[in-house]
Amino acid sequence: MYWDRSVETLKAVALNQLQLERLRETVRQASNSPFYRKRFEKAGLSAESLKSLEDFRRLPFTTKDDLRIQGLKMLCRPLKEMVRLHASSGTTGQATVIYYTRADIAAWADLVARSMYMAGLRPKDVFQNMMGYGLFTGGLGFHHGAERLGALTIPAGAGNSLRQVQLMLQFGTTAIHIIPSYALYLLNTFAGRGLDPRGLPLRLAFIGAEPHSADTRRRIEAAYGVKAYNSYGLSEMNGPGVAFECPEQNGMHVWEDSFLLEVIDPRTEEPVAPGELGELVFTNLTRQGMPLLRYRTRDLASYDPTPCPCGRTHRRISRIRGRTDDMLIIKGVNIFPIQIEQVLMAMPEVATNYLVELTRQDFHDQMHVKVEVKESFFKEDLKYLQGLKRRITEALKSELLITPRVELVEPHTLPRSEGKAVRIVDRRG
Ligand code: AMP
Ligand code: ZN
């Protein structure tokens, strides 16, 4: 049940010791980059003088802007030793680029294999990878992990729904890797062909790359007849394989032998207590080509240091609640998009897609929520639909503290993307 028992079950003291050793090695390695060399000099930090993880906190954070501006100055090995690059999907602003050596690619594949093995993937499985192949890390990251594990891997790529279903039928797919919003969308294709995915050999789904609620996961599990595991990663830390759920499904284990985790208050930059929401900050502990130190992810989550019944000792993080930069301020109220999703996906009448439009009229923010309603409910009479609209409005109001204008629309009428869902359109200028 473990991919690498000794590492996954390392006791806290030994794990901390390993982290400190690897941190020293990383500082040594990072001194090869002009960017970090300068930073180490300024902070008076060296591999030799690093005695504790506290010492390390003297180093300033690395930000997305550093990556954009410094670019190649952050490489710790000559460019000719790099064998691949990836770029972030650019959720916000210009994409950031990460370079990998051969050893980095191998270490990454091993982490992804470890993650999938933890969730139950085995060499006998048929794994269909429905993520975009290309600069985005989700496709190739899982591909190499699954091959490393030994599963038969179908490099399906993103989109092309009919083909996805055909591949599943033809090859008896047992495990899929899929963006949660797309997993819900794909159900339409099954329904359109009169097929029920629960009748297929499918048993496992890895879902990630975008925030999603517990209800979204439950919907996917129920509709496909699978166990769905949350997968978290970001290109700056390789890609997928940073944190992943175990069979307990009670948070994602961060692979702490490879990533040093800090959770900070984004305003004060001080560490937060267990259970408190904060920004995830990671340091690569094993990367050769381009290790990042104290990288501010902008992702918000809490951590849980209590032991997990699965026996793994690596701390767990909660579901990602949002990003520091996707928080909306509407009529002065702070709102994370995931709050809207939580409300909508908990309502059985709501279909799989919705869209939030923000506008400003005479200096007043307006929030307009378009919600796709399931076919069977949409056929009901006007009175029923008005009642439903009122209930959705009330539920949103009690969660968000502002009253949105809700519009019910027919299923499959809202735009959707093949990659990460785009559900907020801000036209406030
Ligand atoms: P990229 O570097 O383009 O692959 O995007 C990485 C970002 O996707 C992360 O920083 C998160 O904001 C988001 N992300 C990845 N996995 C998850 C997940 N399981 N839940 C929520 N957000 C995720
Ligand atoms: Zn566990």
Description:
- With 429 residues, this protein is an alpha/beta fold.
- The protein has two domains: 5-325, ANL, N-terminal domain (Rossmann fold), CATH 3.40.50; 333-426, GMP Synthetase, Chain A, domain 3 (2-Layer Sandwich).
- 33% of the residues lie in helices and 25% in strands.
- It contains 13 helices and 21 strands.
- Helix 6 packs across helix 7, helix 9 runs parallel beside helix 10 and helix 11 packs across helix 13.
- The longest helix is centred in the N-terminal third of the chain and has 19 residues, at 12-30.
- Bound molecules: adenosine monophosphate (AMP) and zinc ion.
Summarize the structure.
By secondary structure, the chain is an alpha/beta fold. It contains 13 helices and 21 strands. Helix 6 (about 100-120) crosses helix 7 and helix 11 packs across helix 13 (about 380-400).
Shape: globular
* Helix and strand composition category: alpha/beta
User: What is the CATH topology descriptor of the largest domain?
Assistant: Rossmann fold
Indicate the low-confidence ranges by residue numbers. Answer: none
Number of helices: 13
Mean pLDDT across the residues is 95
The major beta sheet can be summarized as:
9 strands, mixed
Q: What's the β-strand tally?
A: 21
* Biggest sheet: strand arrangement: 4-3-5-6-7-8-9-14-13
CATH superfamily of the largest domain, called what? ANL, N-terminal domain
Number of domains: 2
Features:
four-stranded antiparallel sheet; 21 strands; 25% strand; binds zinc ion; 429 residues; 13 helices; Rossmann fold; binds adenosine monophosphate; 33% helix; single chain
